[in-house]
Amino acid sequence: MTAPRYPCLYQINTRVWLTELSRGLGRRATLDDIPDADLDDVSRMGFDWVWLLSVWQTGPAAQRISRTNPEWRHEFQETLPDLRDDDIAGSGFAITGYTVHRALGGDDALARIRERLRRRGLRLMLDFVPNHTAPSSLGHRSSGVLRRWHRV
Fold this sequence. Notes:
CATH class of the domain at 9-55 and 94-132: Alpha Beta
Radius of gyration: 17 Å
Largest sheet: 3 strands, parallel
Number of helices: 6
Oligomer: single chain
Helix content: 25-40%
CATH architecture of the domain at 9-55 and 94-132: 2-Layer Sandwich
Mean pLDDT: 83
């Protein structure tokens, strides 16, 4: 008898990944810019799921807070010595709407990356945490996201 195989999850902070890609491309990268070779590597390593963190739309209020908090900024600069304001997207938990952030390519780019993952036998995971709202969300309604993305 063989031991049961449990699903393996590859979790990645999408904004950090795309920031690294942006530097190599010399422009802002979107989900469409994720190289096929990277997806092939994840598949080859035996993962079943890819969990893309921080894909949802965030707003300027949370970004402003992240950019001006001196303690956070100090931590960011320790991680990224050549830190620029553009590197600070704001908290991925300060969500203004459960649609894919425009800077990441929007919902259409998410559909394309999902298909690219599917072709490699990988499934896509996204998080939905209703209390992760931005200071500027002011009662945003996100119930439609469950109907829309439950097939992921």
